[in-house]
Design a protein that fits this description.
The protein contains 13 helices and twelve strands. It is an alpha+beta fold. A hairpin with a 6-residue loop joins strand 9 and strand 10. Bound molecules: alpha-D-galactopyranose.
Amino acid sequence: MTGQATLPPRAQAVVDAFVARYGAPPEYLVRAPGRVNLIGEHTDYNGGFVFPAAIDREMIIAATPKADRLDREVRVWSLEYEAEDRFSLDQLVRSEEHPWVDYMRGMLSIWQACAFKVRAFDAVIAGNVPQGAGLSSSAAYEVAVGTLVNEMMATGVAPKQLALLAQKAENRFIGVQCGIMDQFISALGRADAALLIDCRSLAARPVPLRLAERGVALVITHSGVRRGLVDSAYNERRAQCEEAVRLLAARLKRDDVKALRDVSLDDFLAHERHLPPLVARRARHVISENERVLEGVECLGRGDLAGFGRLMIASHASLRDDFEVSCEGLDVLVELTQAFAGTIGARMTGAGFGGCTVALLPADRVDAYQAEVLSAYHARTGLTATAWVCQATAGASVLDSPMKRAGLG
Ligand code: GLA
């Protein structure tokens, strides 16, 4: 490995493990980050707006293609699981024994289904995006695999396309009907910025966060509640949103209403009482959340952090009361964070039903937050939360490859 003089320590550890296992340095080294969503939850699959940032927790893959081009067996070693799996590129199915490799198999399966070629390889993988925490460890994994094979095979797939393929892997191979947000931000994130993404057109705009300059810390707190029941509840929410679209399109007599994105808050309020109450609540969340995203981005643009924080709090209330995807742990955590002196804003992040909150705090209050809020949380719930300051990072990248070493990447 000659392309990089010094690698970040985690990447170096993956390279070292590769050498120890396969006897030579890897030819390819790629990374793809997890994400935190600042605002815009459950809006992506409604054709709406989201505002996530890629974070400094990521999946790293070191790999070398098999010397024999006819060899179709992939070998992969996980640093976390300290386990190996081997599978054939011609038989990509989910595995009960090694489900941790399913995201790789899923991505390779979708890749080949597009008639893109893949060569077998030996790989070492290591991820530090917490799993089941709402920080998109699976999107990071899929996008990392896509980034690897794209570089290895010189396929030239653009990042947006790669994100769509990764989403397809999640939808078709893993069976989770997620929207595009997680894979998109993992592929296209920007350092020190969040992306305003229009999930219908896939247009995106980086909005600088300037956290250091503003003396603000982006704090992720794991509630200690591992996400449960998320897949079935998630798919159920999607169906309820589709039902709301059908009913609203009929009431508004508008056949151009294809998603909740197409309904304004005023139109919704005028017809809300004609919808079944549950469906109305789901729609109210999505329609108001889309407005909060756009308003929040405007707030940041004019330096109104307090305004952005108020929208985060409103977003949480809407997810809790109307969309009903929060849980007691997340609610208590947000309530305590909101009451903590200096807090700018806080809300649950990701699909919900456990996982993490995201908060904006004055940087010099983070230690006090850790001491006071986390202990108050433990006292109230008996749960142990963990919090850390995260940085907004760039999306997926190739850290090293023959092309890079030749100055071509
Ligand atoms: C999960 C999905 C995303 C999005 C969020 C909720 O993270 O993967 O597509 O729907 O939930 O905002």
